[in-house]
What does this fold into?
Amino acid sequence: MAVLRLSPLALARSRFALSPLAETLGTAIALARPGPAPWFAAWHARRLPAFTAALDADPFADGLIGLVGSTTWLPRFVAIPPADGLRTTLAGELAAVRAVPDADFRAELETSRAHPHPRYAARHHRHHDLSWLTGHDWAARTADLLHALWTAHIAPEWTRRRTLLERDIAHRAGLLATRGWPAALDQMSRHSTWVGPDAIRFGHRPGPERVIGDTGMLFVPVSLATGTWLCEGPPGHYAQVYPARGAATATFAEPASPTTATGPGRALERLVGTGRATLLHALRQPATSTELAARLHQSLGTVGGHLAVLRDTGLVVGTRVGRRVVYRRTERGDLLMGDGEGGTSAQG
It folds into this structure.
């Protein structure tokens, strides 16, 4: 197994980041692989026809995405650490992709095809012979392909996805502040484990020990991917991409059109977000956070985060009953919901 070794300075400077490129790559892999996870099967079925049609029209795109989706070694020209932390833009990342010479591009693909995924490679065997790699300027064609995938499949959902990613980062940053990096990285990925005070064991494949530079390591959540991967840049620069917590309860819905985005329910979703609007609706009857989590199939952390915001804005209130805290909507919350029950809730 590969080991990432961090000095005290590197550990102190490690941080979280966002990567639109990693989000695009994770989405492409999710669409390219059959048998999607149940929690995004509906999204997969909705997006797959357009995704497949685009690949069928371009042998280069079909070959590249097929290889990326069926290897355990992602090419380094797309698995790159985000350069600007939480402010990283897709344009900046794609500029780095475009700069890769053809010789380096092909060498990375040769490495990728030498590491077939045991579950998916048989289905995509035709992409591993690289016969689709014709012409030149492959890096520029890859950047154009990734931009097209972003525009078609991520951009319409990016606001909601980014909220999910930022929520994951906020959760782990809280753990980091109170309990350190081992707690912050706990359950981040089943493929990586904190080893001792200064090292992360990554993956199951044998590999060299890597030393993280003094700038520290980046940790990058993505919303749809179920796996994790390591990004490598200049010497000492690394990022670990991992699945964001809470993605299983997120809904990647199509944006509402002007003709359908009507009514107080849809307006409330746009105002406070789908998760908090759902929670407000569920609080037509008072409930504890545990009851809400079970009813909505969400984690206690997700429900607690929503309740904290709703409580701070005066839309819900919690009343201690024995050992439990029972939450209910305030009059303001009832009026915002617009369901005709205003004035009936008690405030404690």
Notes: The longest helix spans residues 158-179. The chain is about 45% helix and 15% strand. The CA atoms of residues 194 and 200 lie 5 Å apart.
